[in-house]
């Protein structure tokens, strides 16, 4: 879960749940990219941002 200035930030990962990240990331840079996206969206006043990578499971085999 992400918070910025006491406001809950939601991130659209493509999984249907915009509140939390509950899987293992591949590397550190992936987490850094997500945090940067959340920070940039929060600075613009957005409550929901779209993740830089689509994590939907419908195309994973």
UniProtKB/TrEMBL annotation:
PANTHER family: THIOREDOXIN-LIKE PROTEIN 4A, THIOREDOXIN-LIKE PROTEN 4A, 4B
Taxonomic lineage from the root: Eukaryota, Fungi, Dikarya, Ascomycota, Pezizomycotina
Protein name according to UniProt: Mitosis protein DIM1
One Pfam family it belongs to: DIM1
InterPro entries the UniProt entry points to: Dim1, Thioredoxin-like_sf
Gene3D superfamilies referenced in this protein's UniProt entry, alphabetically: Glutaredoxin (3.40.30.10)
GO BP terms in the entry: mRNA splicing, via spliceosome
UniProt keyword annotations, A-Z: mRNA processing, mRNA splicing, Nucleus
Chief localisation class: nucleus
Cellular component GO terms held in the UniProt record: spliceosomal complex; U4/U6 x U5 tri-snRNP complex; U5 snRNP
Subcellular location: Nucleus
Family (UniProt): Belongs to the DIM1 family.
């Amino acid at each position: 879960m992400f918070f910025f200035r006491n406001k809950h930030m939601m991130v659209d990962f493509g999984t249907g749940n915009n509140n939390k990240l509950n899987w293992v990331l591949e590397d550190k840079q992936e987490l850094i990219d997500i945090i940067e996206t959340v920070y940039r969206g929060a600075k613009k006043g957005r409550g929901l941002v779209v993740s830089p990578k689509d994590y939907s499971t419908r195309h994973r085999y």
